[in-house]
Amino acid sequence: MAALGFNPLCCILCGALISRDRQGFQPWMHSFRAIYTVNDSCDTACVSGIGIRRQGRHPLRSHCRASLWWPRNDPSLEGGHTAGQDGAVTRPLNFNSPPYRFRQTGELFWGFPFHCACWDLLTKLRPWGLLDTQTIFDICRSFPARDRVLLFGHDYGGICEPDSMFSTYPGEKPQRMLHREQPLSHEPVMNEAHEHPLEIPGLREIFEGDYADHCFANFLMVGGSTENDPFSPLPLEILELIIAELTLEDVSQLKQASQVYANLVLPDTFWHSRFRRGGEFEHVFESMECGPQCKGRWRSICLRAKKLQNHPGMLNRKRIVKLAWDLLDLVDSRGKISCSMLDSSPLLLGLWEPSAPLHLLKWVTASRSLLSRDENFDHGTRCLYRLTVAVPYDVTSIFISTIDVFGLLYISGIRFEQKSGPSTEVGYIHVESELLVTWTDSKLDCVTGFQLAQDPRGIRGIAIESAAGVLSNWVGEYDGIPRRRLIPHGSKPDGSYGIVLIQGGFDALKLVTLSVTGKDEIARDIEHQVPRDANVWYPEIPDPCLSFISVPELPRAYRHRQEEMPLSMILFGGLKGELLPHIIKMTVWIADTHPVNCVVWGIGFTFDCLVEGKSSLVLGYSRDDGEYDFHIDGQGGERICQIDKISQYSLACDLGFRIHTTRHRTFEFPPTSSRVRLREDPITTSLSVPDGTIVGLCSRMSEQITPNDTGLVYIKDTVDEPVYIEDPMESPPMDERRNPCIEVKKEE
Question: Which residues lie closer than 8 Å to 136 by C-beta, 6 or more apart?
């Protein structure tokens, strides 16, 4: 097997390589068809003629050329005449993403490739006249591509695996997939994946012949007692319906467990059903062509097909058919996008139109890894539509539509029912499966905010805040997924300020970003968002009674990629400080790396009672090595009162933590090492709370946390009279030298 080499290109259906003509792969892997367009004509996708990928003059480059009949499909798909390639042009094609920073200079063709064999297989399952190629094109545009592999989120039937070099955030699946490779050789592990899925020796022959099985009707054989058999009261028709839902292996076991089924002779229709959608041999689509002439022989055909099930070509076909049905199911479930404020169907965003709202000071937006249309789409998501609707003032009910995208549930649309007039809707509305938003203790009076469960691909779950201060039920998937709160500028704690407009950003399937705004006059006086509302949190959004100091900023590298690393929190003191007397130990796990660089894997607290069913809580990850313990007399009143973060500006690295308690004890980790030779005096940033009690820590997390990425969580002290105490994180940022809670100084 040849290695993938430089500049690989993969079929978007099967995930296997579309190889160059002299690269050492099987011939069927050289040719392709493409669903393509030209420049930014994204609403007019066409199917190309057969193309070949050839080696270019430069050893690291290859050219993909195919016959194009733009703006028409290949006439041969409909049985048209193609002699002499009438009207066709042969042009190079760019694949899997619009050209990076495309500037509309001439005609540039781009699209998404299929092996010719995979395309033929797809049209076996869905005839060409019924195949919605425009929707397939739109769906492909909604997923990023990395190393020429379209990242749908699945592993292409096992031939790909997550890239272990790229970490994921808590609660999220890895986005990047790579072909499995042999150790040391770096050759792709494809096994049967390079076998031709349409040419399987002996397969067509099993449908030929004039023999008969002679079991046209269903009947029961006499023999054995059925007195205690629970199936004995059922009529023959019900028995047949039950067994039609089972696999051959299940039928064999059922016959051993039930005398009724042991006496049942399976009819020809049962064996024929094995070749239909959902059956063991649904991938043997030759049965559709030979169906009428095989009547009375389906049992023999089924048993012969079973003998071929381990043939490499059959295994590859079975894998690709599963992927093809998943894609076709997604095409069927997509539906039409709608927006009540438009008189016609929404139009796609142009290549140069921004994905985010135009008036940034007016809107508050919840998005993650949202890339603009002219950026290299190798991660995250992007908008194809940006739609705005007004929230009706007389809303009676709110319904949420969802869609299953390769095993993950996403929000696809929102519909507001009102007392008078038609519903207001935005997005892909699936009325037959939409879910009602409900409140347990009150009814809806005004929408004041949203809580969203988001991953880098879109919005997975949604809950709605009402003016009564009550959160609705969650719709979609939300457990274990990073969440954020979305409220308009000027929102009041009493819920007296509602949402006037919402703006959704959609790709071809789902809601990927959501923006809200309130009254226009508020936009002139934008307030700084508190940390609770300005960040993505995992696993839950903090309680409003908590305050924060020195919330870590997003690293520059992540801001550049439009990513947002979730904030996580360990509430070791409890929501009201009730756990502080039960703390007996603090533990820090540090990676065994160069002594100058402190890499913290986890911070934990151990209690003398069970907390959430456990004796300890951990922020990050616990390990078997690099463990440092610091015992705390929580029952005796000892509390953490200050944290020092020690670093060096010139080395741009963290040196460690220093914990201070009310007993004037200090815990430093990692312990000072004589091996460390510093270029300059270390810088210490001290965090303390003059008007409250420290009850937790927060940090941005991927695979690790570091001292400079950790902030304090505290609860404010109660006072006899209502006095406003300014929280430094709830006001516009100020210089740390003027912040009484943060002190920066050089170590002596």
Answer: 35, 45, 112, 327, 331
Directed axis angle between helix 133-141 and helix 312-334, to 10°? 90
pTM: 0.86
Please give the structure tokens belonging to residue 323: 């992927």
Beta bridge partners of 516: 364, 502
Which 8-state DSSP code applies to residue 730?
Answer: S
Which pLDDT score, from 0 to 100, does residue 225 have?
63
Give the pLDDT band (50/70/90) at residue 625. Answer: confident
Question: Residue 482's closest CA among 531, 535, 565, 539?
Answer: 539
Sign of torsion over alpha carbons 355, 357, 360, 363: negative
- What tokens appear for 263 in the block? 């006496």
In 3D, which of 305, 250, 304, 298 has the Cα closest to residue 283? 305
Q: What are phi and psi of 304, to 5 degrees?
A: -70, -40
Q: Give the pair of three-digit tokens for residue 509.
A: 């399937």
Two tokens, residue 183: 């150790």
* Residue 604: both structure tokens together: 């934990």
The tokens describing 137, both together, are 């094109």
Whether 585 and 629 have beta carbons less than 8 Å apart is answered as: yes
pLDDT of 560-618, one tens digit each?
Answer: 555 778 888 999 999 999 999 999 999 988 875 555 556 778 899 999 999 989 999 99
Residues 6+ apart with CB under 8 A from 559: none
pLDDT in tens, 381-433: 989 999 999 999 888 999 999 999 999 999 999 999 988 888 999 999 999 99
Distance CA 637, CA 334 (A): 59
Contact 139, 508 (CB under 8 A): yes
Instruction: Order across the sheet with 501-506: list the strands.
Output: 364-366, 511-517, 501-506, 385-390
Sign of CA dihedral 14, 18, 21, 22: negative
Of 536, 390, 532, 529, nearest in space to 459 by CA: 536
- CA 150 – CA 9 distance, rounded (Å): 10
Q: Which of 3-17, 202-216, 476-490, 587-601 is modeled with the greatest confidence?
A: 476-490
User: How many CA atoms lie less than 13 Å away from 606 in the CB half-sphere?
Assistant: 12
* Structural domains in the chain, sorted by start: 27-75+87-194 (no CATH), 204-314 (no CATH), 343-527 (2.100.10.30), 567-746 (2.100.10.30)
